[in-house]
Amino acid sequence: MIELKDVCKSYRTARRGAGFGNAAKSLFKREYCTIHAINHISFDINDGEMVALLGPNGAGKSTTIKILSGILIPDSGSCLVNGQTPWKNRKEYVRQIGVVFGQRSQLWWDIPVIDSFELLQAIYSIPVSKYRRKLDELTQLLHLEDLLKTPTRQLSLGQRMRCEIAASLLHEPRLLFLDEPTIGLDAVSKIAVRDFIKKMNEEHRTTVILTTHDMQDIEAITNRVILIGKGRKLVDGTLEELCLEAASAGLENESSEMDIDHMIAYLYAKLNIM
Question: Is residue 82 part of a domain?
């Protein structure tokens, strides 16, 4: 499904000190620094897997997602998704993926949600019969009946996120990228979103790549964790394997098992010493 090999991506950013003097100086001579967002990252993900990309802010998670979705072009390395290079086969590739960014919207702000869905139908050239069938399925599973005629700007955050997920699945993608999909949601909305994602994976074998800081999302949705820190892949394994590894390290727990919170604490401690 996904083959990522030795991928690197760097950014060149300008920096200056505070104050008017430094601002004036920067007009004539700017100082730059290079940030290595991801550094020789490699991993494979099989069809139907549900994987969590974990790491602190600035670790390179979103950059990795943007490369996999074809938004960014890496400096070096190779990336194949279903045999395609995301940034080269753009039009054909985007028909196979769905992307949800928790702080970005693909719904038009001032029009009813159903109008946004119909625009997406036209963009993806979804046949009418297939679109109606999928819309009915998503409306039922995500409880969107009362939301479809409402302008996006009038929805609560939880309501909008349910509509965003539906929008990303109208064209039945084989691969779904979820970047902080439950950020800011209440407990009930989080449970609804998690249950829906698991159902889509079970029924349609949708491959899911999730980035989140919510440990309950990881435990409820995924079965594999890839830890990224300082632009590098540090850990890759199943939740069970990582919990056992954390328990064997003696992290304030003498039993052979460990819950998700202790496992994450162990991984972040491991990140700090690498």
Answer: yes
Residue 141, amino acid = L
Write out the residue range of the structural domain in which residue 81 sits: 45-96+173-272
Q: Would you say residue 56 lies in a domain?
A: yes
pLDDT digits (tens, 9 = 90+) for 69-91: 888 999 999 999 988 899 887 88
Q: Is the pTM of this model over 0.85?
A: no
- Look up the CATH number of the domain holding residue 183: 3.40.50.300
> In the chain, which ranges are continuous DSSP H helix?
20-28, 61-68, 90-94, 113-124, 128-142, 157-169, 187-204, 215-221, 239-248, 260-272
Q: Kindly report, residue by residue over 111-150, the tens digit of the pLDDT.
A: 999 999 999 999 999 999 999 999 999 998 888 999 999 9
Q: Three-state SS string across 172-212, please?
A: CCCEEEEECCCCCCCHHHHHHHHHHHHHHHHHHCCEEEEEC
In whole angstroms, what is the distance from residue 15 CA to residue 40 CA?
26
Q: Read off the amino acid at residue 231.
A: G
- For the cut 80, the answer to whether the pLDDT of residue 166 exceeds it is yes
- Looking at the 3D structure of the chain, how many domains does it have? 1
Inside any domain, residue 13: no
The pLDDT tens digits of the residues spanning 92-105 come to 888 889 988 766 78
- What b/e string do you get for 105-124 counting C-beta neighbours within 10 Å, with b at 16 or more? bbbeeeebbbbbbbebbeee
pLDDT at 250: 59
Asked, for residue 134, whether it belongs to a domain, the answer is no
